[in-house]
Amino acid sequence: MAVFDDLIRGVRAQGSLFGSSTLTPPWALHFVDGPPLTLCTVLGGSGWIVPEHCAPEPLRAYETVVVRGPGTFTFVDEVGTRAEPVACGEHCATPEQGGTRHRLGWNDCGDDGDGATSLIVGAYPVRGEISRRLLDALPVVLRVDPGDTGDPVLDHLAAEVATDTPGQQVVLDRLLDWLLVCTLRTWFDRPGGEPPAWWAAQRDPVVGEALRLLHADPAAPWTVSALADRTGVSRSTLAKRFADLVGEPPLTYLTHWRMTLAADLLVEQETTTVAEVARAVGYSDPFGFSAAFKRVRGVNPSGFRSAGARRMSAQR
Fold it and tell me: Within 13 Å, how many C-alpha atoms sit on residue 115's CB side?
């Protein structure tokens, strides 16, 4: 299991497509929900993404922008547009307007005439500590130019939004997931970029294999010696190479990853006992697990679970 695979596993579109629309200038769409991640792309035409507290970003055909919440943003035909902003969000749709394809308050002219812009926007509700690691590696706004692996996905999106067929929402959700993965991979690999340490480390033949082993079976009784044996190098070579590329020793990384997994289990599985969570992440002794959890998270497992339950209740 690769690190990126684990981190993005909880980032999924589930009926989260805000919509597609053909817009004729002037327009200003204010996306008010501020989800953790929002993906924006245009299939034709152009516009500007104007995030809160950030500089405007141009968005042209087949370019993709990802905006990290909780701030909101506006999509406009031009900076300083004379259009009055229309609030758009999760509850903009009405069934009689065709569900996800047509949104209340959007100017859908029904064709792709001169000056029109075809917009696709998908929002991602990101919950849990696992996916939080991915969010922490992203800027507020990232942009990927056309001409990379996302272009074929956009071709599929263009074809799908042009028709009303059974199962369309599921197809659109999966296409958006695919496009998000392509976009993030391209952005992490961009020339001159500074990807998170775990991204570059995945490509190293020794450290990448060690990371895959830890993520594939985090509850196993790993030692540096065991990892070194499995990766075919000495203990000292693995320890130094891992620390140089990842920024921390292998077992420290494993402890942090185990506590991340445990944090989500504590909140998502309310009936699971602390002892059961401890065993699930590799601790036979719940007291040892509780001590490690508090050392890493600053609060004991029960306190973390209570705070998480309050947060989830507030979000409902």
Answer: 7
Residue 109's contacts (CB-CB under 8 Å, 6 or more residues apart) are 22, 23, 24, 116
Query: CA 257, CA 127: separation in Å to the nearest integer?
Result: 16
In whole angstroms, what is the distance from residue 305 CA to residue 262 CA?
10
- φ/ψ of 308, rounded to 5, equals -65, -40
pLDDT tens for each residue of 193-202: 889 999 999 9
Strand order across the beta sheet in which 46-51 lies: 57-60, 46-51, 73-76, 28-31, 86-88
- Take residue 172 and report the two structure tokens written for it: 């659109």
pTM for the whole structure = 0.82
pLDDT in tens, 141-164: 999 988 878 888 888 888 877 777
Cβ 41 vs Cβ 239: under 8 Å: no
Residue 199 and residue 4 in contact, taking contact as beta carbons nearer than 8 Å: yes
